[in-house]
Amino acid sequence: SQQGEEDPQALSIQEGENATMNCSYKTSINNLQWYRQNSGRGLVHLILIRSNEREKHSGRLRVTLDTSKKSSSLLITASRAADTASYFCATDSISYNTDKLIFGTGTRLQVFP
Amino acid sequence: DTAVSQTPKYLVTQMGNDKSIKCEQNLGHDTMYWYKQDSKKFLKIMFSYNNKELIINETVPNRFSPKSPDKAHLNLHINSLELGDSAVYFCASSQFLAGATDTQYFGPGTRLTVL
To answer: Which residues of chain B have pLDDT under 50?
Structure first.
């Protein structure tokens, strides 16, 4: 069954605002990754956070991980029109005992100029 | 230079036909994957190969047959296409075997439409 679920499903904001997307998962993990998918394109890796990390930064991106709540959030600060895309979280799963990524349902972010 | 490339980008075909999608990566990675993304954008792994060896087969119908002639190539052949096969198929690669703990690099996708 599906591992990650993103919330909200869709988000519309103005340029300059911050965008926060949440991901919840069901079983214990070793790590969690966030990917971006522009319309009609493949996924691009953004950031990986390990289960023993609580927060990670990369440029305007900030990812948090709360393993007790089985959730992660992706914050994009000072958003730009070019950030318009779908964002997916992806996890491995200790319980499933296979080396595969399980993707969430994605959040569609629209940033208006 | 394109890191992970797929051909064709678009594929429109009739039910019952057989078709192939090709994938190549020039990253020197050991592991390659096929994913299927449905109309609701849900992305699910189908297969993974490590150095030409099948590692993951996610209960995909046996009409789907992956083939890896070498570790830089992973092709997907689909027999007797059905309407439900319509989707976007993504190839991906990662450096090591542990794909779930490693960054994956995705191709641009092949949009398959079965009429």
So the answer is: none
